[in-house]
Design brief:
13% strand; Aspartate Aminotransferase, domain 1; binds pyridoxal-5'-phosphate; 7-stranded mixed beta sheet; globular; 402 residues; 4-stranded antiparallel beta sheet; Aspartate Aminotransferase, domain 2; alpha/beta
């Protein structure tokens, strides 16, 4: 049974952050669940009380979080590893390739294809692989709002190794048809690495049905899980071909054998996990992911689309420039818009605890989530109108929101 909007809003009491201001920043930092503090306390109790025995709780907790995340991604239990951040996850994947292989699954493949609306960190990781022989091919978006899917698919050829792209774009919330890119990549034997950071938790995902090769993302945004607990999914049949050079003892088949011989990778996705995990972050992240899984992303998406539509109307009424897709089907959970003087207005709104952010070539980004009321959206826009009218408020400097 789908969760009703009233049930979604009933969770507000479990998110103390929501009483501190108008929280429209879940595309950047999800509100903190009350339960997260309890889980972190549990971690501390285990450390204090169980000494070294705490690992008997901690290691299953890492696997357990991977399974909760996996449920939201639409993949099987045991197929998701937890890593500190997306940059590390992408680097670990990149380290599986030598870009000059003369035999095996990746023979003759050196081309990396992605678009120029990718998240910067992903670009940095792959661009640097050029030093190791990768051939980087970046496809330009026509408008900076939509992913250039036709050109992207056309660029994927028999020499393509991997296509590391965002499912939902951070700057515009434009959403790509991931299945179409995966199908195209598979036609020529290439892999897709889908960054789901801006979709998981607000857009339903079915990565197993889409036959996605590899996926990653983090807990900081829509998952309401805080930093340090990113995830990496690998389709199980691919694992035997992936032997990361960036590795560590927990990626070994028998970490506690402390073998000094050749690396023997774990058979499952833990071959991608490297060294000791950020256990406190895993505990902090659990409550948010559990909430998303319990509420169901279908219900979250239905409310999100209704509210980004409402915001779009409020933006249109004011004659602002919309920098997100107008159509529901290709828009993620955020609405982006710009107007003259937007950066200064944004600073004042943040000072007044109307939490949102501002990005160059984008403008203001507002991300309503399952706990957001319509009244908060109206209140935000009314405050924005008031700030624009008052010239005196726009001169303060403040730190940009993360
Ligand atoms: C699509 C996307 N990927 C990655 C990141 C961040 O990567 P990392 O976890 O390495 O900080 C963000 C935002 O912070 C993002 O929006």
């Amino acid at each position: 049974m789908t969760t009703s909007e009233a049930e979604l809003l009933a969770t507000r009491a479990d998110f103390p952050t929501l009483s501190k201001g108008v929280h429209l920043i879940s595309h950047s930092l999800g509100a903190a669940p009350r339960q997260a503090r309890q889980y972190v306390n549990q971690y501390m109790d285990e450390w204090e009380n169980d000494s070294i025995g705490a690992w008997a709780s901690w290691l299953p907790a890492v696997r357990g979080l991977g399974d909760v995340v996996g449920g939201v991604l639409g993949v099987d239990p045991g197929t998701v590893a937890i890593l500190p951040n997306v940059s590390t996850a992408q680097s670990f994947v990149a380290s599986c390739f030598t870009f000059g292989e003369t035999s095996g699954r990746f023979k003759g493949r050196t081309k990396i294809v992605y678009d120029d609306v990718n998240f910067s960190t992903v670009h940095y990781v792959w661009q640097e692989q050029a030093r190791r022989g990768a051939n980087i091919h970046i496809v330009k978006s026509k408008d900076g709002i939509h992913s250039p899917i036709d050109a992207l698919c056309a660029a994927i050829d028999e020499t393509t190794l991997i296509v590391p792209i965002s499912h939902v774009l951070f700057r515009s919330s434009g959403m790509i048809d991931a299945k179409r890119v995966i199908d195209r990549a598979h036609e020529v034997g290439a892999l897709v690495l889908l960054d789901c950071y801006q979709s998981a938790g607000t857009v339903p995902l079915d990565l197993k049905a889409w036959d996605c090769d590899i996926a990653c993302g983090g807990s900081v945004k829509w998952a309401c899980g805080g930093p340090g607990a990113a995830y990496l999914y690998v389709r199980p049949d691919l694992l035997e071909h992936l032997k990361p050079m960036s590795t560590g003892w927990f990626a070994h088949a028998e970490p506690f054998a402390f073998e000094m011989g050749p690396m023997r990778y774990a058979a499952d996705v833990w071959r991608m996990i490297g060294g000791t995990m950020a256990v406190p972050a895993v505990y902090a992240a659990r409550a948010g992911w559990e909430t998303i899984a319990r509420l169901g992303v279908e219900a979250i998406r239905a409310k999100s689309l209704r509210q980004t539509r409402l915001l779009r109307e409020l933006v249109d009424q004011r004659g602002f420039t919309l920098n997100s897709p107008r159509e529901d089907a290709v828009r993620g959970g955020t609405l982006c818009f710009d107007f003259d003087g937007a950066e200064a207005v944004s600073r004042t709104l943040s000072q007044r605890k109307f939490f949102h952010d501002y990005r160059p070539q984008c403008g203001l980004r507002l991300g309503p989530h399952f706990y957001t009321t319509d009244e908060e959206l109206y209140r935000f826009m009314a405050e924005l109108d008031a700030v624009r009218k008052s010239a005196s408020t726009v001169t303060h400097a403040t730190t940009a929101a993360y």
